TrEMBL record:
Domain Glycosyl hydrolase 94 catalytic: 314-741
InterPro entries in UniProt: 6-hairpin_glycosidase_sf, 6hp_glycosidase-like_sf, Gal_mutarotase_sf_dom, GH65_N, GH94_catalytic, GH94_Enzymes, Glyco_hydrolase_94_b-supersand
Family annotation (Pfam families): GH94_b-supersand, Glyco_hydro_94
Lineage: Archaea, Promethearchaeati, Promethearchaeota, Promethearchaeia, Promethearchaeales
Boundaries of every Glycosyl hydrolase 94 supersandwich domain copy: 12-275
Identification of the protein by name: Glycosyl transferase
Alphabetic keyword roster: Glycosyltransferase, Transferase
Length: 817
């Protein structure tokens, strides 16, 4: 199979050597508010905070080529009239060289055509709402060349939803302004209303010309491949009045042989602070002062260089909090670099904006964001803290949660409502992970409103208890949690069969009389409640701990009594009380989610159900490409199951390898004392270990994808929906906490290695509550016993407490059998 690139672990980059990757292989720029997506051929889009409401540039989903519209620079040799683009797309000309380096928060694309070499670096400086494109062009001819450069972005009319649909309005509202003195194009559509925001696109060179109207730049019956302005070598100084505003600078460059020229482009977002809001009739005057300062600053290459170095340092410092050195290269590079990087991206963007998520329908997911925190909390705990508070503020007094909220408003999204009954419990997992990481128990006392309503505040601890109560208030006929609209599996819609309420079951908790129950939520309840219990015990709140012990025990009994199918856990009972995920079913006999959750919660521990369950998972669900969601997949649509059966067999929720769930089984295997199997599953979906399969896998080899087509799909092994998936966080948890065995607890850092026998030793450096734990794990020598040494002193526990305050480092040596 073809290789499209390689990992450069030292530089922390993935280097793409062929531009025609099976799918766009992308990167994310921006760490806080301003984000920019960029593919290996310059495609992508930018937005400020909210991919729906503050979209700066336009992107066309579902297009051919797949990746249409981006951050382009055309180069034209004036004498010959030949032209090309520095990122291969959109011209797709023949190239003398091409290389794309995706790094942490930056992307550099080098290419050469007609002996003109270009090197463009795109990045978002820390704490700025702008992106830099720094281009260096070198002439490798033996004669002087005259070049014309044309930059190109197409502006989005801010609300990406309206932008993609409401053309009778859109074609009339576009407005721009050009400031030749600073080489800046302003996009100010919406500014005349109350909106107060605008975009700017500037450049470090004087302009020969510019264009701001797409039709003029491209030409009515031309395409991005050969815009008429580039063909002719002359910009038209067009002004957009409606239609499709773009930003294109025209720059002339003359280069002697081997001469290099550097040019900087700056694309950014600005908004006036409320107090600065210009009132009508001045409302059309842009507040350019702040912007001009930024532009002047970043036109200086020295400042750009400094910002780039600062960005690199930022990432080096973040990733230094958790580093490993193991015998396996795929584990090393994913854990040290890419998995943590992806955790940051999923934390920032939830499931909103990728090349597969349009940034329109989905804001921050309640369930999603809580899980993202699990893989992110060690990186920037302060941000995780704020996110937990934001999420809890959308919670309802019942304990229920809005399924999503818009990042800009932080308000719950009403359309999607609240009855995904697993949602509230995830808040417990994120909060406990935060507490274990930081020891910041004060967060539990924070007063947090419900549904963002003033004067409704209750402590975070109360919110967490309400999450448990929410489940307990909604139990079905078997004493198992009602599923509501769906649980983790959005597409298992077991209450959608009949509109008629089920008369045999009417309680206040379930006004609609819908009775479908979820074994996943049952397991999740036990898992979350046990963590709460541990917390109450730690906080010496004995009554509470006892209270929930009772609830846990009852739930476990219900699971074992009504949820055990003989060789695995059932998945659910549908609205008619029929089993889902049982050997009695023809299709969908066994599901992964309830196995994973119940085993992580140690349900049925006394009865030793784990080994049998895991054997069933292995037998029925495991494939060389990962573990499938369920099997056999549904071959026809089932009204009583809903969307799950709307997918063809082997895709997405209908029995694909839904990567998010695989780490649950890895964790269960590790907990059940089978490190070999845990690690084997880990490698099956590790993107780096799948790099050699790129033509089949198709998605980026440095990032987890949400789904890999299952055994029954015609494209078994093909990944889709890369980047924004809970797979990132959960895999990080599985490998770092359960396989490498380093997990934070209330009392210290616990180290319990569960690694394959072939590993003779490995090292981990882990920053925990301000202390660096330098951990070495080795195999015992012959005749030696397993042991743990902390700073040279033997200890009996695998939990290493924090040292004396004056100590900033502890050395741990663990010997394993
Ligand atoms: C997808 C799910 C997704 C849901 C969100 C479904 O079509 O299959 O994975 O969570 O949409 O809206
Ligand atoms: C993707 C969603 O983002 C996630 O919340 C859900 O659990 C999975 N799909 C499974 O349906």
């Amino acid at each position: 199979m073809k290789k499209y690139g390689y990992f450069d672990d030292l530089r922390k980059e993935y280097i793409i050597t062929h531009p025609d990757t099976p799918l766009p292989w992308i990167n994310y720029l921006g760490t806080d508010s301003y984000f920019s997506l960029i593919s290996n051929t310059g495609g992508g889009y930018s937005f400020y905070k909210d991919a729906r409401y503050r979209r700066l540039t336009r992107y066309r989903y579902n297009n051919t080529p797949f990746d249409s519209n981006g951050k382009y620079i055309y180069i034209r040799e004036n004498k010959t009239g030949k032209f090309w683009s520095t990122t291969w797309q959109p011209t797709r000309h023949t190239m003398e060289m091409y290389q794309c380096q995706h790094g942490l928060g930056y992307t550099t694309i080098q290419s050469q055509a007609e002996k003109i070499h270009s090197n463009v670096t795109y990045f978002v400086p820390l704490n700025e709402n702008l992106e830099i494109w720094k281009i260096k062009i070198t002439n490798h001819h033996t004669h002087t060349v005259d070049l014309s450069l044309f930059s190109f972005v197409e502006f989005c009319l801010w609300d990406a939803q309206g932008d993609a649909t409401n053309f009778q309005r859109n074609f009339n509202i576009g407005e721009v302004e050009i400031d030749s003195a600073t080489s800046t194009i302003y996009h100010k559509t919406e500014y005349r209303e109350r909106r107060n925001h605008f975009a700017f696109f500037s450049c470090s060179e004087p302009l020969k010309g510019y264009d701001t109207q797409r039709e003029k730049f491209i030409g009515s019956y031309h395409s991005m491949e050969s815009p008429v302005v580039v063909e002719n070598g002359n910009s038209l100084k067009s002004h957009a009045h409606g239609w499709a505003p773009i930003g294109s600078h025209h720059i002339e460059v003359t280069l002697e042989p081997e001469q290099t020229k550097e040019i900087i482009f700056i694309l950014g977002y600005s908004e006036n602070k409320k107090s600065e809001k210009f009132s009508p009739p001045d409302s059309q005057i842009l507040n350019k002062e702040k912007v001009n300062q930024k532009i002047t600053y970043y036109k200086d290459p020295k400042n750009v260089e400094d910002a780039f170095i600062a960005l690199k340092r930022y990432w080096d410092q973040l990733l230094s909090k958790f580093t490993i050195d193991t015998p396996d290269v795929h584990t090393n590079r994913m854990v040290n670099i890419w998995n943590q990087y992806q955790c940051m991206v999923t934390f920032n963007l939830s499931r909103s904006a990728s090349f597969f998520e349009s940034g329109i329908g989905r804001g921050m997911g309640f369930r999603d964001s809580n899980q993202d925190i699990l893989g992110f909390v060690h990186l920037i705990p302060e941000k995780a803290r704020q996110r937990i508070l934001d999420l809890a503020s959308t919670q309802m007094p019942s304990g229920g949660a809005y399924h999503q909220y818009q990042p800009l408003t932080k308000r719950g999204n009403h359309e999607l409502g609240s009855n995904f009954n697993d949602d509230p419990l995830w808040l417990i997992l994120s909060t406990v992970a935060y507490l274990k990481e930081t020891g910041d128990f004060d967060i539990l006392k924070e007063d947090i409103p419900f549904e963002n309503q003033k004067n409704s505040e209750k402590s975070l601890l109360t919110h967490l208890e309400l999450s448990l109560k929410y489940t307990l208030d909604r139990l079905g006929p078997h004493g198992l949690p009602l599923i509501g609209r769906a649980d983790w599996n959005d597409c298992l819609n077991l209450n959608c069969f009949s509109e008629e309420p089920n008369q045999s079951f009417q309680t206040t908790a379930n006004k609609e009389g819908k009775i479908a129950e979820s074994l996943f939520i049952a397991g999740q309840f036990v898992y979350a409640a046990k963590q709460m219990n541990e917390l109450f015990i730690y906080l010496k709140m004995v009554d509470k701990a006892n209270h929930y012990s009772g609830a846990i025990q009852k739930m476990e009994e219900a699971i074992v009594q009504h949820g055990w199918d003989g060789e695995w856990f059932l998945r659910a009972y549908d609205d008619r009380g029929h089993k889902v995920g049982s050997h009695e079913n023809n299709e969908g006999q066994i599901y992964i989610e309830s196995q994973g959750m119940c085993l992580m919660a140690e349900v049925g521990k006394k009865m030793k159900l784990a080994t049998k369950t895991l054997a069933s998972v292995h037998r029925h669900l495991a494939t060389p490409h990962g573990i499938m969601l369920h099997h056999p997949p549904y071959t026809r649509y089932h009204l009583e199951l809903g969307e799950i059966s709307s997918y063809p067999p082997g895709y997405k929720e209908n029995g694909s390898i839904f990567c998010h769930t695989n780490p649950w089984i890895m964790i269960a295997e590790a907990m059940n004392g089978n490190p070999e199997q845990a690690y084997n599953y880990y490698l099956r979906i590790n993107p780096s270990a799948r790099e050699h399969l790129s033509d089949l896998h198709r998605c980026e080899p440095y990032i987890y994808a949400q789904t890999i087509a299952g055994y029954d799909a015609p494209t078994f092994g093909e990944a889709k929906n890369s980047w924004l998936t809970g797979t990132a966080a959960w895999n990080f948890v599985a490998i770092s906490q359960y396989i490498l065995g380093i997990h934070p607890t209330f009392n210290g850092l616990t180290i319990e290695p569960k690694v394959p026998q072939t590993w003779l030793e490995y090292k981990v450096s882990r920053l925990f509550r301000g202390v660096i734990y330098s951990i070495e794990v080795k195999r015992v020598e012959e005749g030696e016993n397993p042991s743990c040494e902390v700073d040279g002193i033997q200890v009996n526990s695998s939990t290493i407490p924090l040292p004396d305050v004056s100590k900033k480092e502890v050395k741990v040596l663990i010997k394993i059998p």
